Structures are given as structure tokens and as C-alpha cells.
From TrEMBL:
Signal peptide: none annotated. GO terms for molecular function: ligase activity, forming carbon-sulfur bonds. This is Unannotated protein. Keywords: Ligase. Belongs to the ATP-dependent AMP-binding enzyme family. Gene3D superfamilies: 3.30.300.30, N-terminal domain of ligase-like. The keyword Ligase applies. Residues 41-408 form the AMP-dependent synthetase/ligase domain. Residues 458-532 form the AMP-binding enzyme C-terminal domain.
Amino acid sequence: MATDSAPTQAGSLLGLMQDDYPLTIKYILDRARTVNGRATVASFDGEGLTRATYREVGDRVDRLCGALTTLGVQPGDRVATFMWNRQEHLEAYLGIPSMGAVLHTLNLRLFPEQLQYIVEHAQDRVVIIEDTLVPLLAPAVAELGIVEHFIVVGDGPVEGLTGQVHRYEELLAAAPESFAYPEIADDRTAAALCYTSGTTGNPKGVLYSHRSTVLHAVGECMADTFGICGRDTVLPVVPMFHANAWGLPYSSTLTGANLVMPGKFLQAEPLAKLITGERVTVAAGVPTIWLDLLRYADEYRPDLSSLRVVPCGGAAVPRVLLEGFRERHGLNVVQAWGMTETSPLGAVAHAPHDVDEAAAAEFRLRAGQVSPLVDVRIVDAEGEPMAWDGEASGEVEVRGPWIASRYYEDPTGDDKFHDGWLRTGDVASIDDRGYIRITDRSKDVIKSGGEWISSVDLENELMGHPDVLEAAVIAKPDERWTERPLACVVVRPGSDTDAEALAAYLSGRVAKWWEPDEYVLIPEVPKTSVGKFDKKALRARLESGELRGAAGDQS
Ligand code: AMP
């Protein structure tokens, strides 16, 4: 009998499915404006909310693509954005990749030299920029002469911008109503570019494809990750320049979840008001944001009852945060692990169903259970895979359909990739259910007397002290032990908690030899451009003698 199936080389049979149906952001755009056309995006400007339906957003995306084409944007060109989370940013997210160009989200918290490097490296021809942010970008890129067009969102001043300057709304109004989208037959085509915050060397570009972005969006809709669905109202507190706001704009438009965009208003009070007012069901951000909200919620008791899940990641989530929200506010803060290079979803820490509450609390403290379709392992110093026994500790490596295979035009980063795996630089153990327990970044590890001390665990314990607002533990060089832990601690204003009290508090909570030798009380832990504790900055302060001096006074 004749068969339609083609045999493969190995004699196995190829499936007869439409495997070459491309997974594209254009599909997400089409679905957003039709099936999900009634869902809305609401953007907060400090006073009120501007709302649009996804159908209206789709119409504006057509005009945006027409306008960009008129400005000369071709498939493959990089179009940058320099904006907070708002409707126009969503339009860029959906439109730029759909027209075959590459959405490049610039991190507006970077230093001018870094921005300059990134704009030049990416060769951004066009930048869509929020008017209030013009003074941040203009000095950095004025002399580069690379950006041909700035498209300004808002009516504010545009002094300092070189090249041609346009107003977003005027461009859209003048653009044709419809746009003939190119066919993106190969879904491996580049869709978006995001540079890592780069703690060492130059920032590195992660170039997402249509396929990786769509699969990642679907990944976020699984119940075992965040379960984003059409009944959700999603508040991405994580900025759209940080790993594509963790993919939430795409999973929300794919499913028809409403989006609430907080703009630059990332403080506890406006966030709490948005959650209450918009009945937000999913709010995602880094731990520093939620620590603030927890303090606010403890004091003012806002109505946060609409939240079904609060994804929190980008850095280790302290126990006080998970338990504080859970016990005092009945909220489900769920830890997640990922990197810009992993799109970022890599692991999510829902507790298993077959353990008691005490054990569940420990599972929630882990970085997470490796997400479906992501493959993980830990390796020793020789690169040999290690056991998943919850004990052995090694560097985490990952691979999968939304994991980077190399950096964009930067061979200096090639050593992060080998044999199809990405080296994450995180040190962890994995248990037999695939739960990852991160003890440190490899460069933050404290090596004392040949043994590792987990800065993450020490910070967690310290932040459990009722008067401690923030704690970051770094390695201090030590003649005898190579390194010893130094704790940099921020205490509640007015509190008289000192080094002695902290040492007494930790005693018995961690192994004796883990206890920090010194405590330095500082007014604030420095933060990176994406809001994480900046240990590199703390180490630099230590090296310059700044922290040492303070330690002498305190301990
Ligand atoms: P970025 O690419 O800026 O998002 O940084 C990625 C890095 O953040 C990871 O390699 C981890 O070191 C850290 N990270 C992210 N999520 C977690 C987590 N849940 N626990 C500990 N570290 C995390």
C-alpha cells in the first residue's frame, strides 16, 4: 500500500503534521485583535488610566508598521524602544517583530556609556522614546550619528535629540490604516533583542526568535508556571526592558488577559492602588519591589485579594517575603528563576501537592522546579554532570527551545555556550523532582577554608530579623580562610539593632563557621539597573576601604 510519509535516514517515519507552520508574533497580534479583541491594556500616568482594547491596539500597530516602513525600516533592522511599561510599548512589541524588524528594548537605567555601546553595537536606526526620558538618552547617543529617527511618545521637549525627530501620534495619524505584513515563513527569524545587564565585560545581546518567543509565551500559560489565561488581569511591574517583561506582554495578548501598565510608578502605594482598582490577578516583579509592597501592606492593609499569583524572581526571594505575604495577607508569591538568556522562564517554585505545609514552605524557597520544555543539569568543575540528589552542588546549565544558543555578534561571550548548553553561572543543587536550589551566583560565592558558604542563605536568615530591611552578604578576602562573609545590612530607621544584635540573632540559625565576621550597617544596598542587589558595587566599596572603615565602627 502506498504511504505519504517520507522515511528518514534512520529508517524512522516522519510525522504528517504541519510542522512548518510558523510560530510568529504576527500570530499573537492577529489573535489579540480578533479572538481577544475585547481585552484591554490600561496605562497609568500617575493620575489616571488610559485604556484601549486589543482591537484598537491592533489598528494602531498597523499604522505604526506603516509609519516605520515610510521611515525606511526594513526586515532585520533594529528598532529600539526607550520607554516604561505603557500601551505604546506594547504596540512596539507586537508591531516591530510582525513587520520583520527586530524590537530592541533599551534599559533606561543604564549608564550613558553602556547605552552608547549598546545602541552602536545593535546599530539601532530608529528609537521610539518616551518624552520624559529624552534627557536620559539624548546625551548618550547624540554624537553616535547612528540613530536616524527618534519617535517621541508624548508632547514634551525634545532638546538634544539629533537626526529626524517625529511625534508618535502624528506619525500614526498620517500613516495608512492598513499594513501589508510580510510573510515570516521561517519562525527562527529574529524578533527581539535584549542586552544582559552585564556584570562583567560589555553587555551581551540576546536575540530572541519568533519561535522562541511564542513557545515561551505558551510556556507561561501552563498551570505549573503562571497559568496566564483569558480571565487574568496582568500587572507587569517588571519593566519591558528587562527580559521582555518576562514575556508577559506576549502571554497576555496570546490569551486575552488584560494588561495593566504601571509606567514609572513602581512604588508600593501606586502599585497597591492599581492592584485594588483594576482587580489585578497576576503581578510580577523582582523581590525589592515586593519587599516594599509587603511593608506598605502591613501598615495600610490595602485590598490585594484579587491577586491569584505573584511571580517573583530575578534574584533569590527572601523567606520573609514569601511567608509574610502568605501568612499575613493570604497571597501566593511564587518564586521563579530565569535569565535574560532564558527568555526568562526557567523554573517556577510551586510546592508539590504531596507534602505537608512545612515541607511546602521549603519548596517555595527554592529557585523553582525546572519548567516544561526546559532541560537542566548541574556540572562539576570538570564539566561532568552531577547527581540530582538535592545535595551535590554544581554550576547550572540549561537548554531548550527558548534558551539562547549564543550572543548577538559577540564572540567574547562564546564560552558561556558549549555542546548545546548554556552555562548560567549559578551554583545549585537539584533534587529528584527537578527542584533547583540556588546557593549563589558563581561569582558571588564565598569560599572559606575550601568550603562554600551560601550568601543567599545568610541573606535570607538576616532578612528574617524584624528590624532588617535589606541584607547583602559578600566575600571579604581573608589571609587564613581565603574569604570570610561580610554582611551589609540596612536596618529600619530608628532601630538600634547593631552588629552585636545581628550576630546574636544569627547564632544557632546557621552553621557557626558561616556566621559573618563583620557587619556593616549601610543606608541602602546599591541596586543594579534591573533592581537587584548590586554585589559588584559592594565589593568595589570594600576594595576602596569604604565598607571596611564602617565595619570597624560597627563591630
Ligand atoms: P538577568 O539576566 O539580569 O535576569 O539575571 C539572571 C540571574 O538572576 C540568574 O542567573 C540568577 O543569578 C539570578 N536569579 C534569577 N532568578 C533567581 C532566583 N529565583 N533565585 C536566585 N537567583 C535568581
